[in-house]
Sequence to fold (1001 residues):
Amino acid sequence: MTLPLRDVSPGATPPPAPLPSTSRRRRTIALAAASLLAASLLGVVVGGGGTATAGTVGAGSYTETLPPGAALPKGCGTVSTNPRIFATADAPAGAIPTNDWWSSLIWKRNNCGTSENLQAHPLAFKAENNGLGLSYTTTPAISGTATGVGEYHYPYREDVRVGVAGLAAPVVKAADWTDWTVTADWSDGSRSMRATIGHGLPFSYYTVTGGAAAQLTAAATPTVWRNSGATIGFTVNGHDYVAYAPTGSTWTVNGAGISSTLAGKGYFSVAVLPGGADKATLADTYGRYAHAHVTGTRMSYTYDAATGSVRTTYAFTTTPREGTETKTVVALYPHQWRSLTGATPITPTYVSPRGAMRVLAGVPSFTTGMRFTGVLPEVPAVGDAAGADLSTITNYLNAELANPEGISGTDTYWAGKGLGRAARIAEIADQLGITTVRDAAVTAMKTRLTNWLTASSGETGQLFYYDRNWGTLIGYPASYGSDEDLNDHHFHYGYFVAAAATVAKFDPGWADKTRYGGMVDLLIRDANNYDRADGRFPYLRDFDIYAGHDWASGLAPFFAGNNQESSSEGMNFANALIQWGQATGNTAVRDAGVYLWTTQSAAISEYWFDVHDENFPAGFGHKTVGMVWGDGGAYSTWFSSAPEMIQGINMLPITGGHLYLGDYPEYVKANYAELLANKNGPPTVWQDIIWEFLALGDGDEALRNFRANSTFASEEGESKGHTFHWIRNLAALGTVDTTVTANHPLAKVFRKGTARTYVASNITAAPLTVTFSDGTRLTVPAGKTATSGAYTWSGGSATGGVTVPTGPPPTGTPTPTPTTPSPTPTSASPTPTPTGPSPSPSTPTPLSPTRYLRSGGGLTGTAGPAGTVTVAAANGNHDGSPANPQVFTATGLTGTYTGGSTAFDLAVDAGTAVGNGVQARVSYDLTGNGSFDRVETYRYFATDPIVGWERYRQTQGLASATGTLGNLAGGTVKVEVWNAIGNNPTTVGTGDRSTITLPYR
Fold:
């Protein structure tokens, strides 16, 4: 079950809306003060009459004054809180991590005392007031159908709760955290306990004080198969556990309870054993390491450019509670054990939502070795640099001169999408020497980036705000929970950094740290801080080091753990670091990008695509998931049930950093075949994304598809020029060859049949020779991308030199749009016809600006008794178009327009239902003549699966608006509330629970 939370975009102006079926992606929705900014790095200036503070970074700046109306992260029911209240006094200094598998322990959005389910694998945990719950689920719950939305989960089912006798802590805090472990703290004034848990740890480790006795409470009467001195082995719910107490201790069993005084020594550990083994022998093996408590974890990586390889070491720090043993037992995920070096796992394996986890026993660390197969600024123009195809691509590109960004969104996500689109156009135009288009695209990106990276006095939008409590840089207007929930920063900021890398190639001065490079670096550090010494931001915020991939949700408030759908936008961030680091000479950023890109591409192949057909449970019926959850995966998205979007959300944006999508060409074709089967035909939306992906497995078929239907509507971050260029050239190049690496990060090898094409890009001012691992050498002129082998080509001159054809655009070429368009969203509904009798202007109702939604459909100026109405389930996608709405109407209103805007505050609740999104439309008939003069449709609000009221407000943002407001003269106001998505009803509060405030007096 997918479990959405709220989606807030305060003040955001939406981009032109796509077709109704392409309503934009829903993101996973969702402290002691962070270290003070180092004065040597970030000076502080005062602006705005001495009231606003801003940090200057070269020519750029950010603000530390919250923009009016902007939202901050919420914790424990408050608008903004210092999250350090949920950390102990001895917890680590610096910014507190978010977006992790254990984030709900310290964020506590839903429960101020405990945590949500913590999916660590092979165990899942839940911090309760009287102890720590342990769950090892080995049987998946599979729902849905093979052709429709389906999902699998290994849901949390508690086997045993570990605590101390009598413990009743009012709040469980975080006492420590390292790269993939966390230590939770319980204290009730007389008893205390600390427990360390982590990814890949079969053990959980405990220390207790106050003379407390260890207390294990099984979910059912356990079957005890060993009770010998300090060790007890027992089975509950079919799962085998072993508890290890200090030497001299004993365990007592009383029904479902197991207890020990620990011989007064105050420490013990509990391990879960994999099934299907000689558990007695395995208990002895684990017992050798049971008292070497893991107290720290640390990852280190090395990118060897000469060999194109990444070595990653995962090290454990242990504290021997008795004896001298310092090694431990660890379980590895598939992306780790497939690339393991210098160690041999033992058998058997653990079941996990990511597939089989293999065990290393008695190790202090382990190391993986992976090939980095290279990225490109763009695929080379080996197929469209001459002839009719050059005319086609040139006309497509010339059509972008007026508006290379395409969309006009002003929030961080949609601004980023526009930047990404322009970057692709600039790179292609540069390859082909079409300098007018390239320069227009670079100028557009530079203008937008400079605006965002500068927070001038009095500015309230398109800027970045640094919050010291949360240790984060938030862009406002925010979107998709990037403010309140700290969601998706790597998604949003990846587009900014990638565009900045393209600008840096053509204007290195702009990217210098004395100008705007320092602000770009802050965006990188916020999303995934690569510098452990920088306490302003957590280390690798969005990246789960042990799991090998990003998490989008900042607070992880879900039964199923954390989640992420668009793995490919996470890879866009990793690629952006490589491109930016290469363009600016910052090898630390480049190497961090290589590490993230290489590790995550392996994880995506395993957990989103299951290319080896080993990790998804039998019976799931899909070859891909749209979303990975902590406890499973789902063939679904936050925003659509269309197969194109479920599968395409892990493909976009298509860039030269996304060639990893083609590492398994046969899988590409299988993925596409599933889409055709589930769709029962070819794609009808996002054709560009789907065909660009298909081109990595079968470029010829993708090109045939494009040529047969080039009039499709482009995905918002795409352009016809880029789509054609990508597909046309991959049809010539063939598929990615991962067997050959290079000593340069911007290099790639392709194979068609038996013929290879070697590609490298040189963004420096001097010639470059690239050596490939098979001995091939390629000399690349300054400022160009070059190829050799099956194709020999060199392009990308800054001075042009290519003859640009003229003539009418090819069929399907988009018409250029103004630089600052003001489009009408295509999803806006036509002006509705009001129902009921026309009101009479001669008997006006006195205007009260605040109106209350009343049961029975009234919209009155006075509150009534608390009540509810039920909004029917969507059972489809009705984003932007009311379907079975609840309607509330006020008639005969007379009032003076104040010049403001509509505000509303609706109490909504979908109970424990998942995947619901409630939407509102407000319509104004200014004169009561039966025709609505102003219609405002707001973005839908994804309800969470927690029982209790949530607040749907206008800060969700307008999805569309038609007409203008003016004075009311016997007018009518109508509010419609319906479910845009989801298969369950939603409750709306009435009487005194839900209001709308009209901009009238």
